[in-house]
Amino acid sequence: MADRAARFASLITRRRVSAVVALVPLLLAVAAIVLLGSGERAAKPDDTLPAGRDSTEAVALQSELPDGDDASVAVVLFTTGPADDGTRLDRQQLADLGRLAERVGAVPAGQDGPLLPSDDGTAALATVPVQAGSATENADLVDELRTQLRDGVPDGVQVQVTGPAAVQADLAAVFDGADLRLLGATAGVVALLLIITYRSPVLWLVPLTVVGIADRLAGVLATQSLAALDVAFDESTTGILSVLVFGAGTDYALLLISRYRDELRHLESRHEAMAHALRRTAEAVLCSAVTVVLGVLTLLLSLVPTTRGLGLASAIGVTVAAAFVLVVLPAALVCFPRGIFWPRVPKVGQAALVESNTFWHRVGDRVAARPVAFLGGTVVLLAALSVGLFRVDTGLDQADQFLDEPEAIAASTRLADSYPAGLSDPLQVLTRADGQRVLAAVRGVDGVESATISQQDAGITQVDAVLDAASGSPEAEAAVGAVRDAVAGFDDTHVTGSEAQAIDEADGAARDRLVVIPLLVGLVLIALVLLLRSLVAPVLLVVTTVATFAASLGASWWLFTGLLGFEAIDNTAPLLAFVFLVALGVDYNIFLVTRAREEAAEHGPRRGMLRSLSATGGVITSAGVLLAAVFAVLGVLPLVVLAQLGTIVCIGVLLDTLVVRTVLVPALALVLGDRFWWPRRVGPSEPSVG
Length: 690
Description:
There is one protein chain. By secondary structure, the chain is an alpha+beta fold. The protein has three domains: 1-36 and 179-350, Multidrug efflux transporter AcrB transmembrane fold (Up-down Bundle); 70-174, ACT domain (Alpha-Beta Plaits, 2-Layer Sandwich); 355-404 and 499-690, Multidrug efflux transporter AcrB transmembrane domain (Multidrug efflux transporter AcrB transmembrane fold). The chain is built from 20 helices and eight strands. Helix 9 (235-264) packs antiparallel against helix 10 (270-297). The longest helix is centred in the last third of the chain and has 60 residues, at 573-632.
């Protein structure tokens, strides 16, 4: 294996070959990006719902109704202002609003026409069917509806649109132009941090260009693959993918370039220096990439189709990033003279990082002087931050999913002031049984304000039930359970709607965590055992990584509830954060311990770990800060789940790189000595500390 790696490194960095190796893949990638473009797939109603759950089965039945796949409703709310203002709609206004509602296609609300006035007289609503074949068409139709209503509403009346169609339209608006905003913000953050890291006005352009093209190619290959396999994905999939490719790719680039700079201090030929650097770093990058790929592929076991799509897309993205860093980047770098590092040009004879009196060399000396104290201090810190973990609540209400309140959510809140809370988004019961008997059963449930048959065709009946409890409340959850109990005796009868889906999503998320998290931990442990050929070190490294996640989630909980005012964390955020933190945290484990193993062969386990910290501490810190900043960029999208995911990963990566990987792990290695690598011997025997 070592001989093959050496030959490969020498081949792609050879003087007359490197330019071809650098340019040809880049040109092919650009051609693929331009010619293929992003893959497209028509969204399905159950893309974001957990498979096998009651609400998902109901959606499947609903799709068999005429226009069931693309039918939704918009609820138009006319008001005179806040409900407590008391100003009532007069007869002329109601007449004008009735005619306006008919013009926009509102369905009859009763004998009096399309309007349903509120009991307090301050509001009236109308229901407008929206039939759209895609999320884009839905958004366009809702925008057109809003424009028509605002142009036609009489003086003194305010109009807002809510309901399922409007919520989906406002959600789509979150991602309008999101790819460009996210790409621009990510590239800007990466560029700034690379300039700071390399302290060169030129060098950063090479890795940024290579990783940037890898990101675009990964997006094309991932979406085309998902579309070909009919695997669900959405805008958030491509956004997270871009962040992951930039983060992982730049981390790998930092490790390679740091080792290349060191080799240039020993070798005159930059081609030989790069061959040495690539041979030394290829194992770490490959092992890291394989572990990350296996880690994100565990998401394929999720019940939610879009989560499975994210797992597959992420695996493709990390593979592309690693390939570009191991093949294209070294070949591209050796095409430039040493001056590309200006003004800090490495010269033959200069001390390497491992021998320099760097900041991390001094940190290593302090840890070596009192390893037990540093070990105890970091454990206490992580334990204190993890306390919030026991207070975490998951599951966001629909109104809490946006950082900036859109019109659909504001209208839903105002509607609840004058109407039963569930009127804008009723519970939906789908059945193949006798519709009238199901209707009677639903009407008899406590907590159901009213129930009507809204559709009946092809042997399927849809009953819409309005709950009198506020959305997301325990009373609403209890009412959903009561309705399900009431219809449980009917064949092929299922309950859906936002309230029912929220319950099933929470249940599906809990199941996913129970399945994916232990599997991911096991895979990471096996990967580290195979890499290090030891048992103690892999177990300790996995434990520290899991402890980092616990601390980051606990700290994030206090941040979300105390500073930002959230009442819960989105159902999917803990699982995704765990997968990304553990999978990417392995990078820093591998960067540190593979160098420690290399140094220990000559200097012993204790000195080997300290020399590894001196050599890789700066790289790990730079990579961690960069990765944390890249995930924090997810906050540019005003969607709470992405902001929460970015925050948890950001805090976790900073803890991992500044505390765990650079203080806790070296302290553990120093305390245990030879036992850290048991049963393997990595170098001259040394006594442990303590």
